[in-house]
Backbone:
């Protein structure tokens, strides 16, 4: 069995104790070397340019330039490193996906979970043929989400989502009998979903098109979409044309 590729890693976090803990975790990992550490976003960019690490373990919530902005800036660099976010907040998971981070770890990072994230980073680097290879084109629409559960974070493929419902500042992703909350606005989510696959039927609901089995109108004139799980979704007046488009009208 081939030995795992050596990874050069930069750790960026504004909390000294978090940096120290990550250094201790990395010392227990095989085939990794610590390129350096930084405490803010501007320093992260300077260090990447100077040290050319393979991977950046990056906090999100930092004073000044936050981790999402840093990831965007790094993506524009030649030979950009792989980014793994390490944060205390799960509400940035969607934004992390949008800047193409390869993983998203919750603090305090679990050693085994860190190991899997580094394996994913190696696979990503090998797939793109090394750091010098150009980045893959960014998908036009969202392809997956990150959501929190009792074990940490789970990846949810967009093609598996039956419907999305709004709950205050969160969106609930329904997949079969399970559901997950993500911190996102309905309008932004609608922009990110492929309109060929999803349709908005209400100010608080988006439904996968092939999850809709029919339409009905009640005595008051309100329309409802019948769903494959035998439930129904009321169609808002502002979205009647979307519903009509399902039947080609």
Residues:
């Amino acid at each position: 069995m081939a030995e795992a590729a050596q990874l050069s890693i930069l750790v960026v976090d504004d909390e000294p104790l978090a940096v120290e803990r990550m250094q201790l975790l990395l010392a227990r990992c095989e085939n990794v070397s610590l390129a350096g550490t930084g405490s803010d976003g501007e320093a992260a960019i300077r260090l990447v340019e100077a040290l050319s690490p393979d991977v950046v373990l990056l906090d999100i919530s930092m004073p000044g330039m936050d981790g999402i902005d840093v990831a965007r800036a790094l993506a524009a660099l030649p030979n950009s490193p792989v980014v793994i976010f390490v944060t205390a907040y799960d509400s940035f998971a969607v934004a992390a996906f949008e800047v193409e981070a390869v993983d998203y770890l919750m603090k305090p990072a679990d050693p085994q979970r860190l190991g899997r994230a580094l394996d994913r980073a190696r696979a990503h680097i090998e797939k793109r043929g090394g750091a010098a290879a150009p980045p893959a084109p960014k998908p036009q629409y969202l392809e997956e989400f990150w959501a929190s559960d009792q074990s940490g974070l789970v990846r949810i493929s967009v093609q598996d989502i039956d419907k999305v419902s709004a709950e205050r500042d969160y969106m609930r992703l329904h997949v079969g009998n399970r559901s997950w909350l993500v911190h996102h606005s309905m309008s932004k989510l609608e922009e990110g979903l492929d309109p060929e696959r999803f349709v908005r039927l209400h100010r608080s609901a988006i439904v996968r098109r092939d999850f809709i089995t029919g339409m009905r109108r009640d005595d008051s004139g309100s329309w409802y979409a019948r769903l494959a799980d035998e439930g129904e979704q009321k169609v808002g007046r502002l979205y009647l044309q979307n519903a009509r488009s399902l039947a080609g009208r």
Remarks:
- The domain at 150-246 is CATH 2.40.50.1020 (OB fold (Dihydrolipoamide Acetyltransferase, E2P)).
